[in-house]
Amino acid sequence: MLETDDARRARRATANRVLTQLKAALNRAFRAGRVATDEAWRKVTPFRRVDAAVVRYLNTDESRRLVNACPSDFRQLVQGALLTGCRYSELTRVRCGDFNADADTLAIRRSKGGKVRHVFLAQDARKLFLTWTAGRPTTAQIFLRDDGERWGKSHQLRPIADASEAAHISPPATFNVLRHTHASHLAMAATPMGVIAAQLGHVDTRMAEKHYAHLAPSYIADTICANLPALGVVGEADSPEADQ
Q1: 28 pairs with which residues across the strands?
Q2: Closest to 70 measured CA to CA, from 169, 177, 140
Q3: What is the largest CA-CA distance in the chain?
Q4: Spatial CA neighbour of 44 closest among 26, 23, 21, 28
Q5: What is the pTM (predicted TM-score) of this model?
């Protein structure tokens, strides 16, 4: 299985959150006198430097190149991820009946948080899902391989690495990067953090603010751009046109 730094960081961050919850339960038992000592878990330390906001996303040109470099069956999955922000595991489970053309939504019935959520589809996404589901039974999987089989747990790793190489995207993209891409472009278009959190299935805005708030247009950025005077340190030789 291919390994990425981002995937490793995400797993360690999850382990830290589990450790925090476990220690809280054990400490409560210790204070209630149900455990003789708290020495054992006091020695367990969390992974360091795994919760830093690491956001990598594709720009519009990179997104197009990646999609164009994918084989037809895998291209649909990549398009779906970019246009919905859904996880790979979520996309591979959605059925035609989960797409609501009247409400322009895609129901994610088995999300990471365990709750059903409804992902809202913009115009391009709606057009694709209409095409992908037209004339098919409501129980049919939307995304299938060319051989008619379902996409498995790790089937995405090699195709996305190959497509990234063909599209000259380095380091290679992952489905987590595609999810970040969806959310990052929403943030840069001044979408409220609460809306981004709901689209991604987060229980509150903390994760959205941690990863995407710095990309959103802000009063601070607008004020700096409007008020910082020219310092005279950039000449004509520094402009890109000067090299042409």
Answers
A1: none
A2: 169
A3: 76
A4: 23
A5: 0.75
